[in-house]
Amino acid sequence: AFFARSCGDMKNLRVLVTAAGTREPIDPVRYVGNRSSGKMGYAIAQAAADRGAEVTLVSGPSVLNPPANVKTVQVETTQQMMDACLAAYNDMDIVIKAAAVADYRPHDVAEQKIKKKTDDALTVVMDKNPDILKALGERKEKQFLVGFAAETQNLIANAKEKICKKNLDMIVANDVTLQGAGFNSDTNIVKFLFPDGEVRELEQMTKAEVAEELLNTVLRLRKS
Ligand code: CTP
Ligand code: CA
């Protein structure tokens, strides 16, 4: 059937998954973050491990328990996620970047808690973070590289552009405004897009089911 686990069909494959959101500190007690829960990435890591893969999960802060039989590396900032991904990358067969990565970080991280002042506004200047997935795409050799795209508009066009810009083999496009999809939901409604322009729309399903179908698709494409 569609979602059936083909037991052991990822044996001897090394898989890198990133999950959850990165956080960028402002001062010792505050950070800039996003709404990612980590559920999608953790489901992928779990599914790949259950199918026999050797899985490394690089995760931003999440309340979820690390999946069994997975090497989990906990990180906080985008730079830390980048370092962990680059360190693991060369050995990998499949890389799936489900993490919601902070695009910017505060330029200055205050050493002490920032005190409330008399002004009515506070300006935080932000610097651009490195694009982890783009860096991995530039260094791609044998790796099958899967990105995610979280969009609130122009889903297909934006996701297609990311396939090209980041040298991906596939992207999972997510309209995060839909009910039953996106942040913290147990279900997701996604589209798989490929470099040849193919778009496959999946029905609403659990994130565990999306994970299985994503891995089925990756295995099929790696063979061809
Ligand atoms: N990504 C990354 N490093 C970043 C930003 C994004 O690795 N600094 C990865 C995400 O993990 C995801 C993919 O790139 O797999 C797309 O992320 P997304 O935020 O949708 O796209 P961006 O390229 O950041 O563009 P924008 O936020 O402007 O839509
Ligand atoms: Ca982004």
Automatic annotation (TrEMBL):
Pathway: Cofactor biosynthesis; coenzyme A biosynthesis; CoA from (R)-pantothenate: step 2/5; Cofactor biosynthesis; coenzyme A biosynthesis; CoA from (R)-pantothenate: step 3/5. Its EC number is 4.1.1.36, 6.3.2.5. One of its GO terms (cellular component) is phosphopantothenoylcysteine decarboxylase complex. The keyword RNA-binding does not apply. Residues 15-224 are annotated as: Phosphopantothenate--cysteine ligase. The keyword Secreted does not apply. CTP binds at D103, K113, P130, D131, I132, L133, F148, K162, K166. Its cofactor is FMN; Mg(2+). It catalyses: (R)-4'-phosphopantothenate + L-cysteine + CTP = N-[(R)-4-phosphopantothenoyl]-L-cysteine + CMP + diphosphate + H(+); N-[(R)-4-phosphopantothenoyl]-L-cysteine + H(+) = (R)-4'-phosphopantetheine + CO2. Residues 11-219 form the DNA/pantothenate metabolism flavoprotein C-terminal domain. One of its GO terms (molecular function) is phosphopantothenate--cysteine ligase activity. Binds 1 FMN per subunit. Keywords: Decarboxylase, Flavoprotein, FMN, Ligase, Lyase, Magnesium, Metal-binding, Multifunctional enzyme. GO terms for biological process: coenzyme A biosynthetic process; pantothenate catabolic process. In the N-terminal section; belongs to the HFCD (homo-oligomeric flavin containing Cys decarboxylase) superfamily. Catalyzes two sequential steps in the biosynthesis of coenzyme A. In the first step cysteine is conjugated to 4'-phosphopantothenate to form 4-phosphopantothenoylcysteine. In the second step the latter compound is decarboxylated to form 4'-phosphopantotheine. Catalyzes two steps in the biosynthesis of coenzyme A. In the first step cysteine is conjugated to 4'-phosphopantothenate to form 4-phosphopantothenoylcysteine, in the latter compound is decarboxylated to form 4'-phosphopantotheine. This is Coenzyme A biosynthesis bifunctional protein CoaBC. It comes from Phascolarctobacterium faecium. The gene is coaBC. The chain holds residues 177 to 400 of 400 of the full protein.
